[in-house]
Amino acid sequence: MVGIVLSFAWLKLLHLPDPDAVPHYAIGVYCYTLSIILEMITEPLYVIGQVLLFVKLKVISEGFAILGRCLVTVMLVMFYPQWGLLSFCTAQMTYTLIYICCYYGYFIWFAAYRVKKDDDFPLYSMRDFFPKYEKGKPFISFEYASLTWSFFKQSFLKQILTEGERYVMTVFNVLSFADQGLYDIINNLGSLAARFIFLPIEDSSYLFFSQTMERNKSLQKQKENSMKLASEVLQHLLQAVVIIGVTFLTFGYSYSYLLLDLYGGRLLSSGRGPILLRWYCVYVLVIAVNGITECFMFATMKKEQVDRYNQKMLIFSVIFLFSSWQLTLHFGSVGFIWANCLNMLARIVYSSTYINQYYKGYVNQPLTGLMLPIYLVFVYVVALVVTSYSEVLYLQSDGISAKLAHIGIGMVCLSAVLFSVFIFEKDLLIFMQRQYSYRKEKKQLT
Q: pTM higher than 0.85 for the full model?
């Protein structure tokens, strides 16, 4: 119902592109709305899969769905270019159908198999996956409904904070379509690290913290082993994402121009593209830290704390939207990245304050994982200076040999950085090795 109303508002209240230049625009809006509605049908199965740690199910389902969407998009664009938006609508519906079939197909098999072989699984048929009325019990648990409403408000505000710049672009029309297209390209390239590296880490971290720590208990009332384990994991996760983020920042600054030149030629590398991508590397570091700190905070917060955080999120949303609007008006598309950085920094301050108070008085302070050793910082600075100077030489000579030399210098500097991490972050490497061995043994037992 909400999707239908918003689709109507999108088509009737906002500025629409020229029908001759972009045909079938209304059909595209309705198709994407239908796709979202259908995907929501799979949401109960997705939640159960997350709780039961069916990580492979999520990876395989989304992988096949994305692969299907990409193949359909490429084939329709190549053989039926006159379809325009209809090609992308068809590809999106293909993604949705594959995604639904993967989840429902797996759980239909899983429920039937568990009924015969394992009585521990509480759901015995597909009917058990959906709401139902039981005699003597209320149809809706007001406690869970209240908690769900709190998370809904939080998710709504988080959506504004995550995708707010797109709403500003659409509603206020602060950028031309050409600048919006350039920003989307940079955003898609820069977000690859967030999607393929940080997002799986965040999902696994949230599941770990939510199952290790009890939500409604303070640190003093937690189990000693769980408290110590969660503290160590949080500290090492922060170390890992900071190292990954600083590495992206160090080499992204010097290789943004080369990457865009190889990806899209002079069309992308000659304008503001390299500047946008360099600032996006800063944003990658910020979202890496924010993702881990918020994972722990959301996994351990009480309902009252979630409600208070929702109020703070409302303030963050207003500040973010206003800063996005003003910074973009004065500085162009890079203002969106600056506004996102400011938004994430504010959320990091809040979540770090929560973690600091949560572990107040505890021996091991997990926030120390945010600080890199001074020797490793020195190596990063040297790598940044060397690769930046190499980029200046490369820009003066635009031949193939210059590009290869620039890439070679980057590989040498990256090797030096990785060797330094191996030398100065032995605790992190031992922790990663221990976790890998534990997972390997667990996999062999199962």
A: no
